[in-house]
Design a protein that fits this description.
Number of domains: 2
Radius of gyration: 30 Å
Number of strands: 11
Mean pLDDT: 92
Helix content: 55-70%
Length: about 675
């Protein structure tokens, strides 16, 4: 069987173009992500073809030959792409929640482990956040590279010939069925794992191997591959239809099994039916048309480069208009062509890797990986120097970390200490090396979601100035008395709240302050997307939302009464301003045209007051039943009375980091108000 089959390049072109279209705009080709399944089947088939006729040898010789060829084929273009992408990301993308995990994924991609990192990140492949990680697409390379560790262990029996070939085929068939069963089971309990894991994808690659072995065994038995040409041609067209059906209709919730079946079965049919077919057959002519074959030849580099291009455009100028989308496709093809011409092809044609001992080639490949990973780590460490981001250059204004030292008292520091709970943890801020402070200030206990932890600069400043410790029980996405029960009732939220309240009941004492800081209004935007404002309105003012608030009010009184009975003063945080765009993503001149930045950096004060009113009414009702409850309302400071609009920036400096979390400067802006609220009871608005 020939190692180069031109129609296979046509299938690669179909696969990569489907992926490119899907990643550009999913609504254009709903199942375009199934192009990766086509690649998997082709890969299993082609690696079998490439070593299937190799003379008999031991496992070590066979594995050395196989790994040397795979490294020459895969590593050069991959390492170059990863390094360039790492550098571009360091230059253009500021650290944030949305970019968290990029560096880990990129580093893991050097070692073929990015699918593991992505699975453990909790960010599903189809989640919006995945679209902002320029290394997300390397999950499929991780699956392939892990498959390559298994492949020679089983396939080398094939190279020994005789009955061992049949034994190898049966072993692959068994592993295929085992993987298929595992994929079906895992998809019902862990969809993300079923998508990312090699074990749940093994059957797709193994299908290509088994097809090759079946065709080779039939050929040995005397069955001509070109027999029954007309039925095979019809079967090939039917197989193409099955592939197209998969690309049009595949759904994320059915992956990897049974959702991948149409693409896998269709690809198997095309590979089998077109082998030995006449070059004049219409489908063969279509798949071997010169432009199609060219796309197939650069498909590996095109797959590598298109995703970082798309993602970095999303981070900067945007990827929404026809101009930027056209530029993304053109740039992807240009980079892929350069990679194929100057990286892939020269190294594959270079005589030295073919003449050098296989062990030396494998060792050189491993050194290349280690050097690439080391350089990527160095780039990541130097990101503050390399970045052109205003956010990074003015980190002390943007990132809400706060000062750990007192500038007026050398040696006086505040330290954060993490302590475990039965479920989750809490953080204690305490002073060390500081002079005693006269007039004891109350200890502060804060509980809530990420907005509670977002006050870290205030907590540090409070500890440094007063000497009183601050205890923070925060769990992102889990508000406390957030007045939106559907969030608080999530299992991980209710468990963390139960553990936090149990600990609070053992610590709160008369005179302490319990601050309840959470996001209590529906967002107008997140770090990656704007939300439909009609849906935002309904989330706040629909009949169901009002009923939930009434129920939440009663639940809040029941939860707070035992805490108030311990003599603690309870402070409810009033809703801060919200924005339609995240300031940190709109701080550069080159991202002003990005669609997420179009709403601007201000909000109508009257609109925000209307959204805040139901929450403040609930606060008033709670305070009327629990005299220990008061309200601290940062809104009046962040958006002073008399302004028609609330601004995310003041005198060019950010008050907010994203559309609802404060920046470090915003925390400093609130410090006088916060100190007064913690030390003096506030009235209820």
């Amino acid at each position: 069987m020939h190692s180069y089959l031109p129609y296979v390049d046509g299938l690669r072109a179909l696969a990569v173009l489907a992926v490119l279209v899907y990643h550009l705009e999913p609504t254009w080709l709903a199942g375009g992500f199934a192009g990766v399944d086509i690649f998997f089947v082709i890969s299993g088939f082609i690696v079998s073809v490439s070593v299937g006729a190799r003379p008999a040898s031991g496992l070590l010789r066979f594995a050395g030959f196989f790994y040397a060829r795979r490294m020459v084929r895969i590593l050069p273009a991959l390492v170059v792409c990863l390094l360039v992408t790492t550098l571009a990301t360091a230059v253009l993308v500021p650290p944030a929640w949305l970019s968290d995990g990029i560096a880990r994924t990129g580093l893991a991609a050097f070692f073929g482990l990015s699918n593991w990192v992505l699975e453990q990140s909790g960010r599903d492949y189809f989640s919006p956040a995945a679209e902002f990680n320029p290394f997300t697409h390397t999950w499929s390379l991780g699956v392939e590279e892990q498959f390559y560790f298994v492949f020679p262990l089983v396939f080398f029996l094939w190279s020994l010939g005789g009955t061992r070939r049949l034994r190898s085929a049966w072993m692959f068939a068994f592993l295929l069925l085992a993987s298929l069963g595992y994929s079906a089971w895992l998809g019902s309990v862990d969809r993300s794992g079923a998508f990312y894991q090699m074990a749940s994808r093994f059957w797709q690659l193994a299908a290509g191997v088994v097809l090759y072995q079946w065709m080779a065994l039939r050929s040995q038995s005397g069955v001509a591959p070109s027999a029954h040409a007309v039925p095979k041609a019809l079967a090939a067209w039917a197989s193409l239809g099955l592939v197209v059906y998969g690309l049009l209709t595949s759904q994320p919730q059915n992956y990897a099994f049974p959702g991948a079946l149409p693409a896998v079965l269709g690809t198997l049919g095309l590979l089998g039916c077109l082998y030995g077919a006449s070059p004049s057959q219409p489908l063969v002519r279509l798949l071997t048309w010169r432009p199609i074959v060219w796309v197939g030849r650069i498909s590996y580099s095109l797959y590598l480069w298109h995703w970082p291009v798309y993602v970095l455009l999303r981070w900067t100028v945007g990827l929404d208009g026809p101009e930027t989308r056209t530029a993304a496709v053109v740039l992807s093809f240009v980079l892929a062509t350069l990679s194929w011409r100057f990286v892939e092809t020269p190294l594959r044609q270079w005589h030295l890797p073919r003449q050098a001992p296989r062990r030396a080639v494998v060792a050189a490949g491993l050194v290349c990986v280690l050097l690439g990973a080391g350089l990527a780590s160095l780039i990541e460490q130097q990101q503050p120097r390399l970045s052109i981001s205003t956010v990074v250059h003015n980190a002390s204004d943007w990132y809400p970390h706060g000062a750990d030292t007192d500038a007026l008292a050398p040696g006086c520091t505040v330290q954060a200490r993490q302590q475990a709970l039965e479920y989750g943890y809490f953080v204690v801020y305490e002073r060390f090396g500081c002079a005693a402070v006269k007039g004891g200030a109350p200890r502060v206990f804060a509980i809530g979601d990420s907005h509670a932890m977002g006050y870290a600069p205030l907590f540090k400043a409070y500890v440094l100035r007063t000497g009183a410790p601050v205890f923070v029980y925060a769990n992102g996405g889990c508000p406390f008395v957030g007045l939106r029960p559907h969030l608080e009732s999530a299992p991980h939220c209710s468990q963390s709240q139960t553990a936090a309240l149990a600990d609070l009941r053992t610590r709160l004492a008369p005179g302490d302050v319990l601050l309840l800081a959470s996001l209590r209004l529906p967002r107008f935007s997140d770090q990656w997307v704007r939300f439909d404002e009609q849906q935002v309105y309904e989330a706040m003012f629909s009949a169901q939302a009002m009923r939930e608030r009434i129920g939440a009010q009663e639940a809040a009184v029941a939860a707070l009464a035992p805490l108030a009975a311990r003599g603690a003063r309870i402070v409810l945080e009033g809703p801060k301003p919200l924005f339609r765009a995240p300031p940190y993503r709109c701080a550069e001149t080159y991202n002003q045209r990005n669609a997420i930045c179009q709403p601007g950096m201000s909000m109508e004060r009257e609109l925000l007051e209307r959204y805040r009113m139901p929450v403040l009414e609930v606060f008033k009702n709670i305070a009327s039943r629990l005299p220990q409850v008061s309200v601290w309302d940062p809104f009046a400071v962040l958006c002073p009375v008399g302004q028609d609009r609330c601004e995310a920036f003041v005198k060019g400096r950010p008050l907010f980091f994203d559309a609802d979390h404060l920046s470090n400067h915003g925390n400093a802006y609130l410090l006088p108000s916060f100190l007064q609220a913690m030390t003096t009871p506030r009235s209820v608005p």
